[in-house]
Prior knowledge:
By secondary structure, the chain is mainly beta. It contains one helix and seven strands. The chain has a seven-stranded antiparallel sheet with strand order 2-1-5-6-7-4-3, covered by helices on one side.
Amino acid sequence: MTAQRGKDLLLKIGDGGSPESFISVAGLRARTITLNARTIDATTSDSPDGWRELLAGAGLKSCAVSGAGLFVDAAADEAVRQAFFDQSAPNWQLVIPDFGTIEGAFQIAALEYAGRHDGEATYSLSLASAGALSFDAIA
């Protein structure tokens, strides 16, 4: 696999329709996707040579997403803002080039607006997974 451009990592929010349509959260300059799995320590005094043992399949899985960028699309801005104020957990798609798509419910954990007197208005957001996620590999 060759190196991928960071700008090709895409974040989309669902409209809740049936079938659901997704719109890109426009103007993102930086994006990070973090997949986590909390482990469960199952070590006992009988563990071989005192090595830690983990209980397979018992941990808590989560996904965190953060992004920052510019306001360039009113529809995406409205969808994100409304999801924050409703504290809803719409479906999102996280498209990772040459890897696949992660999809599922996320709640906006933080939404920040910023701007300088001599620059553009910017925003940053943080998402927290709010249910089971699916992964669709690129074939």
